[in-house]
Amino acid sequence: EKDGHDWFMRKEIFEQPRAVADSLLGRRDASGRLQLDEMRLADEELRDIDKIIIIACGTSFYAGMVAKYAIEHWTRTPVEVELASEFRYRDPIIDATTLIVAISQSGETADTLQAIRHARSQRAKVLAICNTNGSSIPRESDAVIYTHAGPEIGVASTKGFLTQLVACYLLALYIAQVKGTRFGDEIDEIMEHLEAMPGHIETVLSGADAVYSLAADHASSRSVLFLGRHAGYPVALEGALKLKELAYLHAEGFAAGELKHGPIALVEDGLPVLCVVPPKGRDQLHGKMLSGIQEVRARGARTICLAEEGDTSIEPYADELIRLPKVPVLLQPLVAIVPLQLFACELATVLGHDVDQPRNLAKSVTVE
Ligand code: F6R
Predict the structure, then answer these.
(1) Burial of 312 by CB count in 10 Å (0-12 exposed, 13-18 middle, 19+ buried)?
(2) What range(s) does the SIS domain occupy (predicted)?
């Protein structure tokens, strides 16, 4: 049942090309327009939305952070992302023109469920992004986008996360289509990039052995840092969460620009720092990331850089280099998280931990 893998988690990591492809299936009609089957929110209702609040926990929250970059960029609608457990207790400003997006793989997370109940009592519309048909969160929402990851058995979410990202991109493009904020060709172009993702993820997975040996090299580390910027920042947070959960290692993700505001004090000789390097674009993200990497390296860090194919400027500053396919910055999380999942899975395996059942954790958290 694990298809020859030692862990369900590893099997699920390798299922990601299929899971992403399935989550993209049947989303466009014959004319190429996006259609979301269980959207159940009329175009007029969506056009009236003037604020989106994404609520989720854990890994799903990090998918929400990526979604913020995509939705704001493609739709120009303001987006907040909030931990479900904090949302209700801050007296959030919501009304009938607020769209709440609840992201939950299981559909049963108590904090998220309570948060949407609160939002609906304030007349907000709720859309769920969920992997479990008929679970509580989609049942109590106005609309739903189902991800098609298939059952996720490993406690640590992997294919759940990737398919949540896909659903978030689809939602962003759908809102852009309804609001008319983007022209058809651009939506088409992004959809084509998304449709190429299963192949790109396959490419990353074909490099798994190199990532495994890196993980084994770092098995005696006491602490590991992760750096990212822009859409790579949530990837850094998610990479760190995977390592905490599975390897019981101290791991922290930072926005690279925050380094000098404190975290750089943590850097000492030999500290592994995994760096998610943004694609080279017209903005200054790439250059700024590079200078962050130089700063930690100058203080003795061992830099493990995830950078796109053909980016040679990173080579002088990378002690180790993991290559990523060339994709747009907003979509990079879909490929960049994969080596970090493999890294955590392998490191935990080397340490002799039960990867599918990490200590103290449950697959679905039904208490607040
Ligand atoms: C981490 C992980 C958890 C879940 C979180 C939310 O690997 O799986 O952080 O993401 O408990 O669960 P769902 O998405 O089911 O609401």
Answers:
(1) exposed
(2) 42-181, 214-358
State yes or no: pLDDT of 190 exceeds 80: yes
Answer yes or no: is pLDDT of 325 > 90.
yes
> Which pLDDT value is given to residue 363?
83
Atom of ligand 1 nearest to the CA of 364: 15
- When the pLDDT of each residue in the chain is averaged and rounded to a whole number, the result is 95
**Atom number, ligand 1, closest to the C-alpha of residue 156:** 7
Half-sphere exposure of 175 (CA within 13 A, CB side): 28
What CA–CA distance (Å, rounded) separates 179 from 75?
Answer: 8
ipTM of model: 0.98
| pLDDT number for residue 367 | 83
89 CB burial (10 A radius; 0-12, 13-18, 19+): exposed
User: Could you tell me which residues are beta bridge partners of residue 273?
Assistant: 225, 303
Output the ligand 1 site: residues, CB below 6 A: 57-60, 104-106, 109, 112, 156-157, 241, 245, 364-365
Q: Is the pLDDT of residue 106 over 90?
A: yes
Residue 335 in contact with residue 235, Cβ under 8 Å? no
* φ/ψ of residue 145, rounded to 5: -115, 115
- Distance, CA 105 to ligand 1 centroid (Å)? 7
For the cut 70, the answer to whether the pLDDT of residue 349 exceeds it is yes
Q: Ligand 1 test: best mutation among 55, 66, 109, most atoms within 8 Å of CB?
A: 109
- The rounded Å distance from CA 100 to ligand 1 centre is 18
- Distance from residue 362's CA to the centre of ligand 1 (Å): 9
Confidence at residue 221, expressed as pLDDT on a 0 to 100 scale: 95
> What residues form DSSP beta bridges with 128?
102, 144
Of all residues in the chain, the percent with pLDDT exceeding 70 is 99
Phi, then psi, of 216 in degrees rounded to 5: -65, -40
Cα distances (angstroms) measured from residue 158 to each of 101, 170, 203: 20, 19, 17
User: 221-230 pLDDT, tens per residue?
Assistant: 999 999 999 9
Among 197, 256, 261, 207, smallest CA distance to 232 is for 256
